[in-house]
Specification:
The protein is an alpha+beta fold. Helices cover 23% and strands 25% of the residues. It has twelve helices and 21 strands. The protein has an eight-stranded antiparallel beta barrel. The longest helix is centred in the N-terminal third of the chain and has 14 residues. The protein starts with 28 loop residues before the first helix and ends with a strand.
């Protein structure tokens, strides 16, 4: 999402920066979860780490209240585990970040960019490989379980026919495909599968085997954004590294504690390598580590990764300077990032989620479709608007797509963040309103 910082300056898509108001009164996690569930969601579990002490809470709008050990889908937070697996191999001296990934691929399969340069491990781990978000030959038998039947034969076919459009390490482009390939390639070089390798090299050494894993029993029922039950997602080995992990709030907070160096374990150097800035991210102020996204907070740096599947949402934040970590898990596809940030530091404000759920105006396809197009604030930062019947969607550079809802004939609002977009009467430009600031985009 595009965010505005508190200076009311528009940042590039997906950028994160925080100003620091007077510190809010400290409050426990339980009131935060209870208040959020009055607005949206089905059930939440949260944990935070302060001064070496862990606190957990759970709440449910309906059904059983989850606890610290209830099992959720982690989604893309799995990517940080995959990056840690890579960093461990580097620390062990088994490979270098600038080595070519194709060296471990079978049958002489090449993995090159638009200039013929081999893609490197670091390119995959920093989302700068040029690979698309998803392969174009991903045609699942069940659209509600999209990764379940995408196997090595499918991925190999895609890679053989892939025509890269850009050189490596030139553009940040979030890629589930890239991280699935990263995990699979690491497993190939060890002649094993991703789940076995991650369990042996990461989960067991960190003491997480009882809390985090694959297809764990007791997984909660997931729900979509409207609270309707949806099937769980399943991943084969070639996509597992992008989002396959299941686990609890206790397990994820313990993982955060390990990343902060809060207890003795053999992966300290690997974590340090992951958390170091390695490349430019989606905005100049937000470099990327190995999987981790970095956000400035005054004179400090916070580290984050979120996750989302069809039925679950997750967020993990670290503040190494204060030895703090925050985790929030939801068994519905609802945003939880602000809750996890607030758990790390109470001065970071919560979103007004009630404002995001305002009623929408029903528009006809003929009113919506002329608005589709590409609108640019500058050559690096664009907003792509897509119409699907009477529905309108927007996608900022380097970010996922989100839906826009009608407030007036040419004014729309989002439900994933507090922002509104108004299209000019002639359709040649739009204005983005967010956080008290505005930004102008012109149709290309």
């Amino acid at each position: 999402m595009t965010l505005l910082n508190r200076r009311q300056t528009l940042l590039a898509a997906g950028s994160l920066a925080f100003a620091w108001p007077a510190r809010a009164d400290e409050e426990g996690l339980q009131p935060l979860l209870d208040a959020r569930l009055k607005v949206e969601g089905v059930a939440l579990a949260a944990g935070r780490l302060r001064s070496g002490k862990a606190e957990f809470a759970g709440a449910a709008a309906r059904g059983t209240q989850p606890g610290a050990d209830s099992v959720f889908e982690y989604g893309s937070i799995t990517k940080t585990f995959t990056a840690l697996l890579l960093a461990d191999a580097v620390v062990r001296g088994q490979l270098k970040l600038d080595d070519a990934v194709e060296a471990v691929l079978p049958d002489g399969l090449r993995l090159r960019d638009s200039l013929g340069q081999p893609l490197r491990w670091r390119d995959l781990a920093t989302h700068r490989s040029g690979l698309p978000r998803l392969p174009d030959n991903m045609t699942p038998a069940r659209v509600d379980d999209p990764y379940a039947d995408y196997d090595w034969a499918s991925l190999r076919l895609f890679l053989k026919g892939w025509q890269p459009r850009i050189a490596r390490d030139t553009v940040f482009g979030y890629s589930n495909l890239g991280f699935g390939l990263l995990g699979h390639a690491l497993a190939l070089r060890e002649d094993t599968d991703y789940a076995t390798l991650l369990t042996r090299r990461v989960l067991m050494p960190l003491g997480l085997g009882e809390h985090i894993g694959f297809a764990r029993p007791g997984l909660l029922q997931g729900h979509d954004a409207q609270g309707k039950p949806v099937p769980a997602w399943h991943f084969l080995g070639v996509t597992a590294g992008a989002g396959a992990l299941h686990g609890s709030a206790r397990g994820l907070l313990r993982y955060g504690q390990a990343a902060l160096g809060g207890y003795e374990h053999p992966l300290r150097e690997a974590f340090a390598l992951c958390l170091r800035p390695h490349a430019a991210g989606s905005a100049p102020i937000n470099p990327v580590g190995l999987a981790w996204l970095l956000a400035p907070a005054g004179d400090r740096t916070l580290y984050n990764h979120d996750g989302a599947t069809a039925g679950f949402s997750s967020s993990l934040w670290l503040d190494p300077s204060r030895g703090a970590a925050g985790v929030v898990l939801a068994n519905a596809q609802v945003p939880v990032t602000d809750l996890a940030m607030h758990a790390v530091d109470a001065s970071l404000p919560l979103q007004d989620r009630a404002a995001l759920r305002q009623p929408s105006l029903t528009l006809a396809p003929a009113q919506v479709q002329p608005l589709a197009g590409v609108y640019a604030m500058n050559p690096q930062f664009k907003l792509r608007v897509r119409a699907d019947g009477a529905r309108l969607f927007a996608q900022a550079t380097g970010q996922g797509e989100f839906e826009l809802f009608g407030k007036a004939e040419r004014r729309f609002f989002a439900r994933v963040a507090v922002l509104e977009i108004e299209f000019d009467a002639d359709g040649q430009a739009l204005t983005l309103y967010q956080g008290g600031g505005t930004a102008r985009f012109v149709r290309e």
